[in-house]
Design brief:
Elements lengths: L6 E6 L4 E2 L4 E10 L3 E23 L43 E19 L3 E3 L2 E10 L12 E12 L5 E9 L1
């Protein structure tokens, strides 16, 4: 194995805002440092969503945890004091057995989705120098699941499988509306 990668990648595309359902034309530039066998290249369309989740929790006494039919009602907070800062600004003491307290819990959430892949450039023998390959990837027509309440970041990730050498990767952010 060599100490220096035999292949470097660069993604070329039109810098603009893309829409759902649209195809992105890609120009993949390969900088080959020495004779290399390329097993294939994959382009992935990745979407990352980040949002805050706000939940309201009610404390209930042990006798109120379930109904007569033994079905669970609501959410029981057994150790209210474990929640950091919960009663720091309250005028009253911690809720006792049978007292109701409404609590807001906010958590940050994120999800990452692989929304599309394109494979190309299989079984190529490359000579040293520059080469260009062309391909497309389609953006799905449906928005990501939490896009109405989330900050959404889109990117294209490119990975080349190089035989008997280090694989090459590249990534570029895109704007999708």
């Amino acid at each position: 194995m060599y100490l220096i990668k035999s292949l470097a990648l660069e993604i070329g595309l039109e810098e603009r805002r893309y829409h759902l359902g649209e195809s992105i034309d890609l120009e993949v530039r390969l900088e080959v440092k020495r004779q290399t066998k390329l097993r294939g290249i994959v382009v992935e369309l990745i979407c990352e969503e980040r949002w805050s989740h706000l939940a309201f929790v009610q404390e209930r006494s042990a006798s109120e945890r379930s109904s007569e039919s033994s079905e669970f009602i609501g959410y029981m907070v057994d150790r209210v004091g474990d929640v950091k800062g919960l009663f720091g600004d309250a005028r009253d003491v911690e809720p006792v057995q049978g007292r109701w307290a409404e609590v807001e819990l906010e958590t940050d959430r994120s999800e990452t989705y692989l929304l599309g892949t394109t494979r190309f450039g299989q079984h190529l023998n490359l000579e040293a120098g520059s080469q260009v390959l062309y391909t497309q990837i389609k953006i799905p027509t449906a928005p990501p699941p939490h896009s109405s309440k989330a900050k959404v970041d889109w990117r294209l990730r490119l990975a080349a499988d190089v035989a008997w050498d280090l694989d090459a990767t590249a990534s570029v952010a895109i704007q999708v509306i």
